[in-house]
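Q: I'm writing up a methods section and want to include an example of the input and output format. Could you take the sequence below and give the corresponding predicted structure tokens, formatted cleanly so I can copy it straight into the document?
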Amino acid sequence: MFRKTVLARALTIAFAATVGSTVVVGGSAHAASNSAGDIVGRAAAGTLITIENKSIGLTRTLTVNKNGDYQLTMLPPGTYTVRAKRPDGSLEERQVAVNAGEAVSSNFEAATNTVVVTGRLNRIDVKSPESSMVLNEAAIDRIPVARDVTAVALLAPGATRGDARIGQTTLRAGNVPSLGGASPAENVYYINGFNVTNMLNGVAFNQVPFEAIASQQVKTGGYGPEYGRSLGGVLSITTKRGTNEWKGGANVIWEPVDLKGSSIYTEAGKSTNKWLVADRPGGTDDKKANLWAGGPVIQDKLFVFGLVQGADIEQKTYGVSTQTIVKSNTPRYLVKADWNINDNNTLELTAFNDESKDKVRTFASLAPYATPQGAERLPDEYTSGGQNYIAKYTSWLTDDFTVSAMAGLGKYSRASSIGSAACPFIRDDRTSARPRLGCATTSNITNPGANDERRAIRIDAEWNLGDHGLRFGLDNEEYKVVDGTQSSGGETILIKTLAPGSDLPGGYVNNTGAPIDFLQVRHFENGGAFTTKNSAFYLEDNWQVTQNLVANIGVRSESFENLNADDKTFIKVDNTIAPRFGLSWDVRGDQSLKLFANAGRYYIPVMSNTNVRLSGAELDYTDRFVYTGSNGGDAFQNPGRGAQLGTRTISSNGEAGDPRSVVDPNIKPMYQDEFILGAQHALANRWTVGAKVTYRKLKKVMDDMCNGPGAEEWALANGYNGDQAALIGGAIDHCFLYNPGGDLTANIDLEDGKGLTEVVIPAASLGFPQPQRKYTALELTFERAWDGVWNLQGSYVWSKSRGNTEGYVKSDIGQDDAGISQDWDYPGLMEGAYGDLPNDRRHTVKVFGAYQVTPELRLGANAIIQSGRPLNCLGYYSGNLDTVSILYGASSFYCNRQLNPRGTVGRLEWTRELSLQASYEPAWLPKTTFSIDVLNVFNERGITQVNEAGESARGTPSPNYLQPGAFQAGRSVRLMAQYEF
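A: Here is the clean output for your methods example:
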């Protein structure tokens, strides 16, 4: 039996070598750096371990300590030869592949013919309790999936696509994932170890050209203390780099609009909430070309890699009253240099640019959803993305001590040039078609110079002390934002109908006995320059408790500081303590069965959006007028205004208050606790199965609260005179940032000559429930690792996400004002708010794989089946908790004067999507690849988001209720031709 086992393992390794497959299990003795990996293992004390990566000229040697453990940390990703020379003179070597963010085991425990398999054959990582998925370039290329970071992340168990309105841009819908039940604004994104998350509201990030990606890692839970600023997940990209061999290539990728599936839904069958597919003109024609090369400037010492991407993207959209043509052809690039200064010191430099300019032309439609164009409106241009520069230095000071230092500068532009800036935005909401009038092309105009800039430094170190591996580090980020928004033309005008007996905010009731057409006219403006500072340090002990049991014991401390437009601090929180604890047990001692557990606390910083909206000057008010039925004859088409209906309602008065007067001084950052218990089992023939249970509970929420009437009532009942109570109510009505569900400590000027006075208002008087968000998931996974012939991977996840707050965004209404949503403004908005949350997808099945049919032909498939999103009926507040929530329009869980608690009016239907791929590498044309990917083969057009506003005024049902707002992307065909040298 012993000989058979040895022979079988040896043959398996030999077979893997013959097909050119790298043998490695993704995993670690501890959580490796997100841009580098580790090699760890066991061997007899005194064994000389040498690793060599010939492609980049890197060699390192160490002697195994008396405990029999060794680790070589912070290694550039790639294939390494590991050689062991034992004290008795016996030799053994093998190859392992190191992935960024992971460590691979290579054990040499006995001088026998026994081969300990450490790769993806039939052994698993038994050292790490993290939940992660790593896909390198070759693995991604085998999967028919959209070529963007989010699409790849959605392959991970527990990942679901966020609301299409969250992070929406001119050219495309929002494209950020929800990971582990968190909101789409609660992830963190890295490129080569540099944080590229847009900290304005967390729903955007800088990206390298997709062809420049060497690997992508998605951590969905259990990550160690070196990671923070996230309640969802960690998405980490490692870029390609130069090696000792000059290599390069070029490709052309085309998604022709003529091969796309039908484009939109009609209203047929609306009464049964069924929306039928109809062929309509329009769509996106996407052409990209990439050219890249990399190699040695000095053999074994200095390497360079560069890639440039050109694009020609055109999107045509045909609506009821307008047509738009959006074009984008901005080039993007990445350049990377790697210098092996000597055997113990390396320097990496990365620069990339993802700036994109979208040029928008808008035309009047001569007929709804038709191609004939009318008069052209003034053009617009929107900019996103920017330049990023990263420097990383790594030093292996001794065999047991390694340190790395990183510095980065990242820029993100949100500039716009709106040709129709003087035109009010006018829309007729009296029918479901909602046609637009006038010359406006957008409702809100961003500050033309809006931009963000991040400056960051980070230091990480690892120290091997035998059974203990210490990891520690610190980082510091300063994020500067220039931002501001105003209504196009100064006003947003909606034409609506008020039914008999219905009322409006501002005190008007329709007692005429007949419907009234009216205008809702909103004026909004804010802006300024703001700074956010985040810092952290961490310490972790990776303790080999026994030969089969590893404990990861760590702690992270984070500090946050937000400044207003006058560079005065208005939020400062120091040294939040986030403990992390993980266990991993190699049950049989042979790397075939692992039990693991994890518990941790995770904080997220205050987004810069809070600086802009809360600490800046903001003017926001709404008036309502009788609609006379006529519109101006000029390009503006301003609707005629009759008598004003009720009084003006003011949300913000345009004044920026003292920073101490808008934030609870005792505020705590938003944080979450997480618990994971799981098992992973390696089977024969490269199969691995796993099961995991995850529980996440949101413990604190940070949001703004505006319940001035409740505060004033409390003040009157607790010894304050009428004038003082009015001042307290007025100050709170301006909105305070605090922890919902708790007491509010507010600094208020009582006009008594004493300046600001601290007033503590108990939670019971404010009328808010405790914030709740609980995520529970059972995850079942399987994988058959690639062997050069085929692979298969998949998961089933049952999950439940319930609570009364989604988190940093509000997908119910597409609000991405991270940290200052409307949720906690007034008690009435939270009445009935507990239930199934927007990112709740009860069942999800994902399966993907590939098969090498012949040496020239490979086929691939990817299928995702997911249950639908819960639905709400949002309307004008009709309860008795306050008299202000009605001013928010269709935003409460009262609808048609009935309370409909969150998620109780049904769900959207299941979505199903199958994508296929064929890749052909002809023997008669070496180094050339032709491929075709058909995404969403059957053109499934499931609805992914609807209009949940059930009323257009209190008691007046909205004709737009349940109108689809987003669908599955229709069938698309991607063609690629590629040549490499």
